[in-house]
Every structure is written in structure tokens, then in C-alpha cells.
Amino acid sequence: MTTKTFKHMLTLEELTPTDLDELIRLAIDVKRHPDAYGTALAGKKVALLFEKASTRTRISFEVGVVELGGYPLFLSGSDLQIGRGEPITDTIRVMSRYVDALMIRTYAHETVETLATAGSIPIINGLTDTHHPCQVLADLLTIEETFGTRQGKVLTYIGDGNNMAHSLMLGGALSGMHIRVASPDGYTVDETIYNQAVALAETTGGSVTLYGDPAEATVGAHVVYTDVFASMGQEAEAETRLAHFASFQVDETLMASARDEAIFLHCLPAHRGEEVTADVMDGPQSLVFDQAENRLHAQKALMITLLA
Ligand code: CP
Ligand code: NVA
Questions:
Q1: Nearest to 146 by CA among 221, 68, 251
Q2: Could you tell me if 60 and 115 are in contact, meaning their C-beta atoms sit under 8 angstroms apart?
Q3: Whose CA is nearest to atom 3 of ligand 2?
Q4: In angstroms, rounded to a whole number, what is the distance separating the alpha carbons of residues 70 and 106?
Q5: 295 is in an annotated binding site
Q6: Rounded distance between C-alpha atoms, residue 293 and residue 189, angstroms
Q7: What is the ipTM of this complex?
Q8: The sheet that has 178-182: what strands, in order across it?
Q9: Per the confidence metrics, is the pTM higher than 0.95?
Q10: Where are the alpha helices (DSSP H) in the chain?
Q11: Does the pLDDT value for residue 1 go beyond 60?
């Protein structure tokens, strides 16, 4: 029996710690007993709208809806009338008459907030420039499976203060984890989101701390996490960023300062030789493919919770 307090999944901040615990518990059960949920979304239509590229998000949502007995509709932003100027507020009012939920990957975070207000169906954020909550549900599931708990675990994120850093701060804070973020000068996290995460962590016994030195941030970590130096939409900055992030690569030396049992996570896609060395990415501490698989299970739990 769920005690869910949220209608949309935009940032993770809309969840209580209990909501998050229930989602993770359900994801574990869905993963163990997929057949028990084969009709959970029977008769439900879920639109999947992409304004940016995707491999994992697209495939895991599409397969997830099918495995739950629902019907997924893949929609590309450039094929819809929004590509020709139809207001997104009109689009969501129309969609609300046809489908039961919308998952969207887009640029400005305000877009998903507008959709949640203007439409009458649950909105799931499949990545914006500032948040990637569905990825972090899968990450937290992976951490829970590995260590048996999230509470008190130290996660060090090395790199750009981007959507991944923001969602990890919020999801980690809700979990009572200790989140450390190490970024080069000028690339640190958004101050408002940092303050939100710090406030959340104060209620759960967790913490959120910013660092400038990756080695210092990694000492004693249970989880070492990184992401691309240039996100989607920042292609023009890629070369400059490569230079500015040169000393923020996750390599075996850095992994050695984490705990012996530490795991390496990456949301993918990864660039071996840039943010992570091939040794670490393909080494024994890397759980990146289990983590990618967990997108499917975590999102099935999310859709059951929002829709069933
Ligand atoms: N991690 C992630 O969201 O991957 P995609 O961009 O392939 O969906
Ligand atoms: N920060 C990356 C994450 C990709 C899953 C991006 O936004 O491109």
C-alpha cells in the first residue's frame, strides 16, 4: 500500500524520504518478480517525447511500459507541431485528452514545470538541463542493492555541476547519504539547488559538501560517480571544457583513495580517456551496466506508483 504524496516526477524534491523508500522497495520487487506486474498499466498510454538524443531513457521507458501491459508512444520534438511553434501549453492540454502520462526529455527545466501546471496528467522528467531524476532513482537502487542501505553512505561526484550533480545531491540528501561534489572553478553546482539539498539533508542525517580537489573529495567514498564534461546542448564548449576539466578525470589513482569496497558509477554515455579512464570504466569496481539496467526497474516502479 503506497502513501505517495507526489503527482509528477520533476526533480526528486517533490518526494518525501518515505516516498523514495517506497519507490526503491517497489523497484526491487519489480526487478525480482517482473511477471507479477505484467498488467499493472493495462489500458494506459504513456507518451515519450524527446527533444534531445537518448539511448537508455528511450529504450528503458518504451520497454518498461510494454512490460507493464501499457502502450508507449515515442514522439520526437521535431516531428510534433511544437517544432513549428505550437505552444507547449496547448500541446499538453491536447495530450491530456489522449494519454495517461507524459515522459519528456527537454532543455529548460521550466518546460516540465509549465507542462505540470498546464496539463492534467503526470509529467515525468526524462532529463532537463538542470535535473535527471529518473537516472538517480536507478543509481539509488544500485547503491541499495550493493550496500544493503543508502543511509550514511558517501557518494563522491567528480566533474561538472550539471543535471546529474543536482539530482544526485537531491536524491542523496533524501536518502540520508553524504554527497560530495568536486568541480573545477566556474563549473560548480547551482546555488539554489545546493541550498535545497542541504536543507533536505538536515532532515535525514545526510550532508552535501562542495570541493575543489577531487582527491580530497574521494577519501573514504563508497561510490565514485562521474558524467560527461560537456552535456547535450554544450557541444560548442567541448574543447574548452576538456582543458578546464583535465585534472577531474576518474582514474585508478583516484579510485584508490576511495574505500576498498567502493563502486564506480556513470550515468552513460561515457567517454573513456576524458572523464574516466578505460581501466576504471571497464574495471572490477564499475557497476555501470547494472546501473543502466536499473533504469528499467526503477522507472517501472515510478510508473506503477504514478499511474496504477
Ligand atoms: N543516462 C541516460 O539518460 O542515457 P541516455 O541519454 O542514453 O538516455
Ligand atoms: N549530463 C548529461 C547526462 C546524459 C545522460 C547530459 O545532459 O548530456
A1: 221
A2: no
A3: 231
A4: 23
A5: yes
A6: 27
A7: 0.99
A8: 207-211, 178-182, 154-158, 223-226, 263-266
A9: yes
A10: 17-32, 56-67, 88-98, 109-118, 133-147, 163-174, 191-204, 214-218, 238-244, 252-257, 278-281, 288-307
A11: no
